[in-house]
Amino acid sequence: MVHPTRLVCTLLAASLAIPASASPKAPWVKGPGKRPVTRREAAINQSRRDQPWNETDSCGTGVSNYTVKAPKKNIWLGLTEAEVAGITEFVHNQKSLNLTAVENATNWDNSLLLVELMLPNKTDALNYFDGGGAEPARHAHIEVDHRASVHNPAYLDYIVGPLPISNKTTVEPLAWPYTKGPGSSHNYAADDDARNDFMNNFGAELADITRALWNGTAMGLDNDTMSIWGIDPLFQEDGRTISWDTFWNNNNDVYDDSTLLPLGLFLKPDITGRDPSQWSNQGVLYNGEFYDTIDDFKSAFYSGNIQTFGPNEDEEWGRTDQRGPVNPTDWQSPPMLIQPAGQRFQVDVEQQYVQWMDFEFYIAFTRDTGIKLFDINFKGQRIIYEIGLQEALAHYGANDPVQSGTAYLDSYYGFGPYAFELVNGYDCPSYAFYLNSTFYADETTRTHLNNICLFEQDAGHPIQRHSSSQYVTITRNIFFTVRTVSTVGNYDYMLDYTFYMDGSLHVTVRASGYIQSAYFANNEEYGFHIHEYLSGSMHDHVLNFKVDLDILGEKNSLQNVSFVPATVEYPWSNGKTRNTMKLEKSFVTTETGIDYPYNSAALFAVVNKDKPNKYGELPGFRVLPSTAPVHLTVNAAHWAERNFWVTKQKDTEPRSSHPFNNQDVADLVVNFSKFVDDESIEQEDLVLWINAGMHHVPHTGDLPNTVFSTAWGSRINYHNGNVTEVATFGSETIQPECTVDLRDSFTDLWDYTGDVVVRKFPYDPNDPFFNTQSIVKRDEDL
């Protein structure tokens, strides 16, 4: 599956060089005609043909100078190893925090969860970059898992600084970036170990039935064949904490397909408070029937009053090995990308600074949301101060309480820790340039090698072209991509920031991996029946991005240009009206949420009203989706209610979400709805909060893995859709050992003909190309 809604930011009112002026329809469109080739043109054509071809013995050996020194220090880069070590020691010495080393901490101790850079405020950053000011003071953001509390275990946010550690450094509760005030959220995961034991006790109580139904058990033993887990977030109803859980078969091999193996038996534990002796089970659900107690369920089962079904088992259908007959051409190496003249972009690895063509920018990386880009300049002017993922919501629907109660907020799990090394030649072209990322976990810093790739690529289609009877003009569409992949649980999210030579920036999110499925019984209205006892659980993906555009400065407005039908009487229409269409131009005046209009009959652009171009038009960036976006309503994710939002930039509103918004959903750390408070946004510093996503109804083609192409056009429940039937592409059997002849990679443009006419009447076999028109004449016609 791919989240196809790309954030496409297109430069408006740009000055582009046109290779040739437009001309009327070519003569061959209007009727017969022929343009003779002049002697001068013929001589030029021949001389160009005679120029020696530039050959090379191997691919990509002409490596250009790909290093560059960043003009300014990357103030978003992250903490150094020394800084992290100093901060960790410093906060452990703060008696008020009462920290225990992670390796010794129990469920009743406080421990340090996170140490990372507190990103500088935009006002301080611009003062440094544009105003000649000092580098912003460095501070750290830390998170403490405060479990040394009987009644209120909590996640707590603090700010530590200034850095480096000195007698001026302090630890203070972090409040100003959060709508709640001090960053704190009730920790409903404080007793996960006790909760697992609690659920395994029910597994033991039901072991006779699970053996009878599925020949397996979930009792917390090493030889268990099943697990019990359930909803996220937990239900919080009438002051009680409810966790619906269900039985799943375990995968018995290396394949991570357990989310394809639901078994259809559900429990309703009440886990209110921290004393497991006060916890209880409130019911059992099986095949659409609810039972108040486990005893009631057992009684019905043994009396034969329950219709039972079989298990979803870990077998070949859930594995990604090659299966089925192999296409004879699989053993040949497929087409591949090459970089014949070496790298054409420059990188300051230490500062994570990149230059490509007219673009330059800085890269940052965080634990919660992974990669961000800052200070994006095009042709020497800043166009985007910040762009980056804020949150990813996966909201499920089904007949059962687990799927219908699941709404993952993935920043809780983190995109950063699961951004693993990319597979060269598969995730990225074999010539890609790689960067590493570092994040904090369990009082260690971890570095994932080669998990950010940078590369140029040909789009496979030109960025512009036009042909006529006299000329053809065409430009290759070469783009530059920054890519990372995060495997958050069962899904692999591939995130691209793609830059185009015309100044456009596309943000694309794709997803593959294993679906989280539902048991098939009674689920017909919520998903397709995709395997023997399996239903594809319908769900929505919505990913929120922050886009802080600065168009010729920070003072901008949001323009709405609508396409409207109109009936107009013109001076030339002899008193009659004509049905036509017009543009209605307006501006969004206050902070608000916006849905893209029906039929895409409007465009929205961030423009600078104070700096029109020489034609009086407003320069800016248009924002549009590549396909129909989605939105939905979840209390912990108010940003998902509309396609995009526009707000006034504030240093106190740096993020639309918080990783612990999935904990205390009634008392959010960051409540995005409070960002939108009707302030004026005309010629102000604007931030767009844009959603990308899709509705996903899994089908047989999503087994074993969802494929990246699903949203663009694919089979649905046709055969099994298994891409693993085409697996190796010769990578393991035939390693090509040859020199690539680059002459086939470069087209002799002077061989372009353009048009061939074969005369049919009267037909002369001795001169079939009589009166042929072509842009470049054949030699014998010269």
Task: Describe, in short, the structure shown.
By secondary structure, this protein is mainly β.
Describe it.
The structure is a single chain. The protein has 3 domains: 2-12 and 344-695, Beta-galactosidase, Chain A, domain 5; 81-174, Roll (Nuclear Transport Factor 2, Chain: A); 192-314, Nuclear Transport Factor 2, Chain: A (Roll). The chain is built from 8 helices and 37 strands. The strands form 7 sheets. The chain has a 10-stranded antiparallel beta sheet with strand order 20-21-24-25-26-1-35-34-31-32, with no helix packed on it. Strands 14, 15, 16, 17, 18, 19, 30, 33, 36 and 37 form a 10-stranded antiparallel beta sheet that branches. Strands 2, 3, 4, 5 and 6 form a 5-stranded antiparallel beta sheet that branches. Mean pLDDT is 85; it is low at 1-9, 11-41, 47-63, 710-733 and 772-782. InterPro entries: Cu_amine_oxidase (IPR000269), Cu_amine_oxidase_C (IPR015798), Cu_amine_oxidase_C_sf (IPR036460), Cu_amine_oxidase_N-reg (IPR016182), Cu_amine_oxidase_N2 (IPR015800), DUF1965 (IPR015328). It comes from Dacryopinax primogenitus (strain DJM 731) (Brown rot fungus). It is an enzyme of class 1 (oxidoreductase). The modification 2',4',5'-topaquinone is found at residue 491.
Major β-sheet, in short?
10 strands, antiparallel
- By secondary-structure content and strand pairing, the structural class works out as mainly beta
Under the CATH scheme, which architecture of the largest domain would be assigned? Distorted Sandwich
**Total helical elements:** 8
CATH superfamily of the largest domain: Copper amine oxidase, catalytic domain
Name the poorly predicted regions.
Answer: 1-9, 11-41, 47-63, 710-733, 772-782
Backbone CA Rg: 31 Å
Strand order of the biggest β-sheet: 20-21-24-25-26-1-35-34-31-32
Beta percentage is 25-35%
Count of distinct structural domains: 3
* CATH fold naming of the largest domain: Beta-galactosidase, Chain A, domain 5
Helix content: under 10%
